């Protein structure tokens, strides 16, 4: 309690707004926020399975077992094997294939997003900070490429270059860097006119140092949110392109390719299509939820509201 | 130069760049004559085709030729449709003009994309507005969940699941093909899921911002009814981001149709693109891409011009 | 459309606006905040009431609550607001819509953002007129021109089709006034109508309000932090501090002999031509944080007359003369001291 015998001073007011919250409070709040907790767990699980596929998968990914073909989810095969999500037309365990498929789908998405972010953010920050001709050229390119139908261009380029992991990542880089560039340029424009950058300039900082040490850390939050969303977008695009036969090529297996393969058996074995699609759905959903959450908590007012609702903070006051 | 003219010229330039890119990139996959006739062709036939099609000229000459003919609406002839090369004397006799093939397929794509838009735009806006008008209500939660689901779902997978449910299991609707109302329901719903989600999301967030602005309280204070405040006062001010999103999603529909048309065997431009890609029918690929790119660029232009209607400052020349 | 006279509770003999023990509470992260705490006042036809106070004293919140413009939740509203006998607190939406505009209208501080940027001003002015009377757009436009002329907007017949961004701040405020007058309300609540304007324009707008209230028998509730405005315009003054009324009375009486130390402090901080050699008084300390109001009298920490008794309980408003009331426990002591000093 504040001593009421003294007049209120401005410092009292400030103290009341600056209750320190540690990371444990954030952890507790996440546990209370079921939706974010779900999204975070799903993404963490996905990362664990992607990295540890060789140890965690219950079966061999290419383990043909012609006696156990087309078993529905939850079946026990003739050899006593348990198939959580059923088997495909060659008797391979669907769950195992999903885990290995995640490797390709997730790494295409993450790699594509990382490269686009690096190129886009660099171009955008330079354009926004330096302005002039550089900005004109970059923004022309960005506006032009953004108004093209990206899936169609991707299809055409992959038709020319041929599919496969590397080309897919390359195409994603070429067709998605603009999204980052546009945002980074806007942020850099704002930052260039801000007091902290003006202060750095007046102290004689070089422009490279200003961009890296002063602007970049301050614009990181919105870029990370966009990055999360872009991973989801790229995983969806990868699925579409692979489904059409222009993305990842067999024997690599991605979720999109698995749906494409399962399509032939859709009348008899729905699970071959349903589960890979659900895997993509939940991945994209979790990434979207995490991005929304991250956007919310980087805003101080919303972070306060989010934390206050879920911690003991409110009660203690 | 007036803004309108500048935007139109920009768009034409962009289209030209796209078409040129497709032209030169298309030459990277090898000899067009061999591509046309297939590996079994005799050297004599190949040479004859090269002469007829002008493939022996320098590449820049061929390019200028191509652009020149393009201006008259001639995008070349198909390698596959009605193709009879030997012994053709004139290029016109080689096969069907690709532009005709593409234009023939356009109505089907328009029908499909239009049906999807007719569902997605009103529904998306209605969902977003309802959520914004009652923040944190049950309706808001439902709208948020549905729009997230719409954005996260894989379109073609949704289409397949709808086929399994409504065509295979229940037998209510056809699994695919072109026809009347029954045929368009499933593909249109498949195509609409994502735009519904995106439009609802952007409507919700811009409407929330607008509804918190002072002019809303003024309207309330002078006695305007709530639904009028929401739909007349706020929605018009929220229009620009919403219309931009509708434009983006319309472009995405035109290309998203590629997958949906394939799944539902819907004979539109999308299916044509897939077919021509799998047959390496280069002129047809070039023409389809040119037409779709032109459509997308036109949609972008229309969206841009519509801003003036929603923001009076722009018409009256006070900049943006 | 329903008329005000048809609403349940309508009573010709009742006071025009009677506010009784109005409370507005907000839920915040730091607990409940009483933005308005038991405010009462009445407004009679043609009268001008000035509500004076610092920002955060609850003057705006109380007026927003009268018209039901605070969304509930987060605001929790209790007490009673009667317009011609019609209860407005927790009234059905239909009652509120009928009373807003045609009974009580309100205009706001920042006129430019308070007008809809994408609708023509003529349309905005006549919008409710058209909706209530079922008039078509052409007669609505004519009516809008008429109203714009009434608030002295030059060249009204041409400017009726312009958009708000084409007008200056003062003109926007006139447009908002025209808009508020469209249904001939009996009361106009003006929430700091001139704060955002240039000084010369301020005067013009104030004069306009004054002439409107005289000619149209319009009661004005003027929210302001400017005592000069209050002295010039008001028949009655109500001073608010930290959500409560601290002093109320006829303007002349309050200015001649302020009872509450806060009112006294406010008055001494005003420049005055007659004693321009004296230093202006300042009020020490800062406005209270509503979540952490001091015990007893809210003004105590800043009050030069504060005594131990002021901590014990929150002073109630007590009547101390004809239509005069103040909320200070030490009124008598203060005046004794003052007269002994002289």
What does this structure look like?
The complex is a heterotrimer of chains A (317), B (320) and C (342). With 317 residues, chain A is mainly α. In chain A, 72% of the residues lie in helices and 1% in strands. In chain A, strands 1-2 form a two-stranded antiparallel ribbon. The longest helix of chain A has 37 residues, at 94-130. Mean pLDDT of chain A is 79; it is low at 1-18. Chain B is mainly alpha-helical and 320 residues long. Chain B is 75% helix and 0% strand. Chain B has 14 helices and no strands. Chain C is α/β, with parallel strands linked by helices and 342 residues long. Chain C has helices at 59-66, 93-102, 111-114, 121-133, 137-150, 156-159, 169-181, 199-215, 227-233, 251-256, 261-268, 309-312, 331-341, and strands spanning 17-28, 31-43, 48-52, 75-83, 86-87, 104-107, 187-191, 219-224, 236-241, 244-250, 318-319, 325-326. Chain C has an eight-stranded mixed beta sheet with strand order 6-7-8-3-9-10-12-11, sandwiched between helices. In chain C, a hairpin with a 2-residue loop joins strand 1 (17-28) and strand 2 (31-43). In chain C, helix 4 packs across helix 5 (137-150), helix 4 (121-133) packs parallel to helix 7 and helix 5 (137-150) crosses helix 7 (169-181). The radius of gyration of chain C is 21 Å and the shape is globular. Chains in contact: A-B, A-C, B-C.
Structure summarized in a few sentences:
Chain A has helices at residues 10-17, 23-32, 34-51, 53-56, 94-130, 132-146, 150-161, 165-192, 195-202, 207-243, 255-262, 271-298, 300-310, 313-316, and strands at 75-76, 82-83. Chain A is mostly helical. Chain A has one domain: MetI-like fold (Orthogonal Bundle), CATH 1.10.3720.
Question: What topology emerges from the helices and strands here?
Answer:
The complex is a heterotrimer of chains A (317), B (320) and C (342).
Chain A lengths: L9 H8 L5 H10 L1 H18 L1 H4 L18 E2 L5 E2 L10 H37 L1 H15 L3 H12 L3 H28 L2 H8 L4 H37 L11 H8 L8 H28 L1 H11 L2 H4 L1
Antiparallel strand pairs in A: 1-2
Helix pairs in contact in A: 2-13, 3-5, 3-12, 5-6, 5-8, 5-10, 6-8, 7-8, 8-10, 9-10, 10-11, 10-12, 11-12
Chain B lengths: L2 H25 L4 H6 L5 H11 L5 H13 L26 H36 L4 H15 L2 H15 L11 H31 L2 H8 L4 H12 L1 H25 L5 H10 L3 H29 L1 H4 L5
Helix pairs in contact in B: 1-13, 5-6, 5-8, 5-11, 5-13, 6-8, 7-8, 7-11, 8-11, 11-12, 11-13, 12-13
Chain C lengths: L16 E12 L2 E13 L4 E5 L6 H8 L8 E9 L2 E2 L5 H10 L1 E4 L3 H4 L6 H13 L3 H14 L5 H4 L9 H13 L5 E5 L7 H17 L3 E6 L2 H7 L2 E6 L2 E7 H6 L4 H8 L40 H4 L5 E2 L5 E2 L4 H11 L1
Parallel strand pairs in C: 3-8, 3-9, 6-7, 7-8
Antiparallel strand pairs in C: 1-2, 1-4, 4-5, 9-10, 10-12, 11-12
Helix pairs in contact in C: 4-5, 4-7, 5-7, 7-8
């Amino acid at each position: 309690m504040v001593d009421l015998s003294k007049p209120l001073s401005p410092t009292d007011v400030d103290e009341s707004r600056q209750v320190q919250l540690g990371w444990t409070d954030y952890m507790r709040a996440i546990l209370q926020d079921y939706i974010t907790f779900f999204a975070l767990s799903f993404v963490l699980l996905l990362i664990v399975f992607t990295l540890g596929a060789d140890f965690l998968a219950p079966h061999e990914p290419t383990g043909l077992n012609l006696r156990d073909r087309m078993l529905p989810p939850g079946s026990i095969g003739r050899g006593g094997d348990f198939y959580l999500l059923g088997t495909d037309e060659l008797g391979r365990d669907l769950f195992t294939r999903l885990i290995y498929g995640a490797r390709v789908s997730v790494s295409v998405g993450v790699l594509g997003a990382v490269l686009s972010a690096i190129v886009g953010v660099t171009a955008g920050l330079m354009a926004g900070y330096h302005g002039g001709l550089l900005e004109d050229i970059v923004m022309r390119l960005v506006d032009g490429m953004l108004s093209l139908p990206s899936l169609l261009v991707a299809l055409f380029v992959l038709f020319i270059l041929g599919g496969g992991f590397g080309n897919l990542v390359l195409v994603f880089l070429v067709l998605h860097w603009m999204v980052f560039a546009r945002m980074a340029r806007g942020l850099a424009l704002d930052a260039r006119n801000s007091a902290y950058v003006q202060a750095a300039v007046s102290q004689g900082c070089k422009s490279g140092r200003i961009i890296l040490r002063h602007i970049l850390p301050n614009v990181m939050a919105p870029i990370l949110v966009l990055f999360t969303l872009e991973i989801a977008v790229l995983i969806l695009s990868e699925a579409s392109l692979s489904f059409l036969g222009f993305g990842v090529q067999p024997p690599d297996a991605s979720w999109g390719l698995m749906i494409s393969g399962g399509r032939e058996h859709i009348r008899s074995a729905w699970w071959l299509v349903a589960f890979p699609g659900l895997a993509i759905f939940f991945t994209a959903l979790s990434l979207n939820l995490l991005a929304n959450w991250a956007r919310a908590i980087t805003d101080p007012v919303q972070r306060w509201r989010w934390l206050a609702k879920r911690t003991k903070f409110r009660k203690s006051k | 130069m007036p803004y309108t003219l500048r935007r139109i010229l920009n768009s034409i330039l962009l289209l030209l760049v796209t078409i040129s890119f497709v032209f030169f990139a298309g030459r990277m996959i090898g000899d067009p004559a061999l591509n046309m006739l297939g590996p079994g062709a005799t050297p004599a036939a190949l040479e004859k085709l090269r002469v007829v099609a002008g493939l022996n000229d320098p590449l820049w000459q061929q390019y200028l030729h191509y652009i020149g003919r393009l201006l008259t609406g001639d995008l070349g002839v198909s390698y596959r449709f009605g193709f009879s090369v030997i012994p053709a004397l004139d290029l016109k006799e080689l096969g069907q003009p690709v532009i005709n093939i593409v234009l023939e397929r356009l109505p089907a794509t328009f029908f499909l994309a239009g049906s999807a838009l007719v569902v997605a735009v009103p529904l998306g806006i209605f969902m977003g507005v309802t959520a914004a008008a009652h923040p944190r209500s049950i309706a808001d939660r439902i709208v948020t969940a549905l729009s997230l689901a719409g954005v996260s779902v894989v379109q073609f997978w949704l289409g397949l699941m709808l086929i399994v449910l409504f065509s295979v299991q229940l037998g209510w609707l056809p699994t695919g093909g072109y026809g009347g109302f029954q045929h368009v329901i499933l593909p249109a719903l498949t195509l609409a899921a994502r735009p519904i989600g995106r439009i609802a999301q952007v409507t919700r967030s811009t409407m929330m911002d607008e509804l918190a602005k002072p002019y809303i309280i003024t309207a309330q204070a002078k006695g305007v009814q709530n639904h009028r405040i929401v739909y007349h006062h706020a929605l018009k001010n929220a229009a620009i981001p919403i219309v931009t999103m509708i434009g983006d999603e319309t472009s995405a529909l035109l290309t998203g149709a590629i997958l949906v048309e394939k799944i539902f065997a819907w004979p539109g431009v999308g299916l044509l693109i897939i077919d021509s890609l799998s047959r390496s029918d280069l002129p047809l690929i070039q023409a389809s891409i040119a037409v779709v790119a032109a459509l997308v660029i036109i949609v972008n232009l229309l969206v841009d011009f519509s801003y003036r209607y929603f923001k009076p400052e722009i018409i009256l020349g006070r900049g943006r | 459309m329903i008329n005000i006279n048809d609403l349940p509770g309508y009573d010709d003999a009742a006071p025009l606006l009677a506010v009784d023990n109005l409370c507005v509470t907000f839920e915040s992260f730091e607990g409940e905040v009483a933005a308005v705490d038991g405010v009462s006042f009445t407004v009679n036809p043609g009268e001008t009431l000035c509500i004076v106070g610092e920002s955060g004293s609850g003057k705006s919140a109380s007026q927003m609550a009268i018209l039901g413009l605070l969304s509930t939740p987060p605001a929790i509203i209790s007490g009673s607001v009667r317009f011609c006998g019609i209860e407005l607190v927790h009234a059905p939406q239909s009652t509120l819509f009928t009373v807003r505009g045609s009974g009580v209208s309100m205009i706001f501080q920042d006129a430019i953002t308070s007008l809809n940027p994408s609708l023509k001003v003529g349309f905005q002015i006549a919008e409710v007129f058209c909706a209530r009377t079922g008039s078509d757009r052409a007669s609505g436009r004519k009516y809008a021109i008429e109203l714009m002329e009434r608030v002295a907007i030059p060249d009204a017949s041409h400017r009726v089709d312009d958009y708000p961004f084409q007008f200056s701040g003062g003109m926007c405020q006139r447009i908002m006034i025209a808009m508020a007058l469209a249904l001939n309300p009996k009361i106009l609540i003006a929430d700091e109508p001139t704060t955002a304007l240039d000084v010369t324009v301020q005067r013009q707008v104030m004069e306009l309000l004054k002439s409107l209230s005289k000619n149209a028998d319009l009661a004005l509730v003027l929210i302001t932090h400017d005592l000069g405005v209050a002295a010039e315009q008001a028949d009655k003054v109500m001073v608010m501090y930290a959500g409560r009324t601290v002093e109320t009375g006829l303007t002349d009486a309050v200015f001649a002999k302020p009872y509450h130390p806060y009112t006294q402090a406010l008055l001494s901080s005003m420049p005055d031509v007659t004693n321009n050699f004296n230093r202006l008084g300042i009020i020490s300390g800062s406005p209270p944080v509503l979540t952490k109001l001091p015990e007893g009298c809210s003004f105590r920490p800043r009050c030069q007359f504060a005594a131990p008794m002021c901590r014990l309980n929150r002073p109630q408003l007590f009547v101390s003369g004809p239509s005069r009331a103040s909320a200070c426990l030490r009124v008598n002591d203060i005046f004794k001291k003052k007269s002994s000093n002289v």
